[in-house]
Design goal:
Bound molecules: flavin-adenine dinucleotide, FE2/S2 (inorganic) cluster
Number of strands: 16
Largest sheet: 7 strands, antiparallel
Radius of gyration: 18 Å
Strand content: 25-35%
Strand order of the largest sheet: 4-3-7-1-2-6-5
Distance between the termini: 29 Å
């Protein structure tokens, strides 16, 4: 895997719905080698400051098929993401990437991709949906959020998906209820579906209980320090034999649904 340390100029910056921001960065080396599901480790301080010291992980939200730019989509929650929200075209971001293991996209004969996102969990799933669309096997995409304000990237997902189904817990947009209820209905009669999911822990636990014998992959988020497998700061419990813990930054962030204990 080729990983680059890049000074990536911002080419676009703006809100993405009421709760999120989107940055487009010119980063050809990352864009040419990245797989959906991989992430960037971004420095979130001005060049002359060391605080905050730790980089912040953000998923590759979109990967330019022509290999020039990448995008990230994020929720502003603290100092790092506030710094990124203040960047404007012409500013330069310091990024390391692409890091981690992405989503396996070999579907096998007759298999249909089903993508399930919750809240900001849609961030990496857009690159995945666009990859499937580019290959001529567009996915069924289900996205949910607590309220309409928590939905993001519906414009690009609508273009990329074979069919896009939206739910909100309070019914303020799309179908009322959890996205996993809609998933349960759509899985009936789809024994060969390959499921891809990213979202809050409770959502992933529910999806884990629904996959049955199907292939399924989850992208996990944990707090990270080094981002490259050295500090064990991002460990999650493995479910099978072998090492008791897996590192989200190095062994993931994408795992087979039976590889990890979600919330363990
Ligand atoms: C592999 C990976 C990919 C990610 N991709 C995205 C993405 O595409 N878009 C996005 O918005 N976020 C993503 N995250 C989460 C993102 O890294 C954190 O929101 C970010 O580090 C927060 O930094 P901060 O300095 O703004 O907030 P901090 O000051 O560090 O934290 C503020 C609060 O945010 C919450 N928080 C911080 N980090 C995380 C985390 N990793 N998971 C859950 N809650 C957290 C905590 O409640 C914390 O108290 C990803 C995380 C991982 C591990
Ligand atoms: S963040 Fe250091 S091992 Fe994953």
């Amino acid at each position: 895997m080729m990983v680059s340390l890049d000074k990536a100029p911002i080419v676009e910056s703006g809100p993405a719905g009421p709760s999120y921001r989107r940055l487009r960065l010119k980063a050809p080396e990352v864009a040419r080698s990245a797989e959906p599901g991989q992430f960037l480790h971004i420095r979130c301080a001005p060049p002359d400051r060391l605080d905050p010291l730790l980089r912040r992980p953000l998923s590759l939200h979109r990967i330019d098929p022509a290999g020039e730019w990448i995008e990230v989509l994020f929720r502003v929650v603290g100092r790092g993401t506030s710094y990124l929200a203040g960047l404007r075209p012409g500013d330069v971001a310091d990024v390391i990437g692409p890091l981690g293991r992405g989503f396996p996209t070999d579907l096998g004969p007759g298999a249909k991709p089903i993508i399930v996102g919750g809240g900001i969990g849609v961030a990496p799933l857009v690159a995945l949906a666009e990859r499937f669309r580019g290959r001529g096997t567009p996915a069924l995409v289900l996205v949910g959020a607590q309220t309409a304000a928590g939905l993001a990237a519906l414009d690009v997902l609508g273009e990329a998906a074979d069919e896009l189904l939206v739910t909100t817990d309070d019914g303020s947009s799309g179908r009322p209820g959890f996205v996993t209820e809609a998933l349960g209905e759509r899985l009936t009669g789809e024994p060969a579906a390959v499921i891809y999911a990213c979202g809050p822990e409770a959502m992933l636990q529910r999806v884990q209980g629904m996959v049955g014998t199907r292939r399924a992959y989850f992208s996990l988020e944990t707090r990270m320090a080094c981002g490259v497998g050295a500090c064990l700061g991002c460990a999650v419990r493995a479910s099978g034999a072998g090492p008791g813990y897996l590192r989200v930054c190095h062994d993931g962030p994408v795992f087979g649904a039976r590889e990890v204990i979600i919330g363990g």
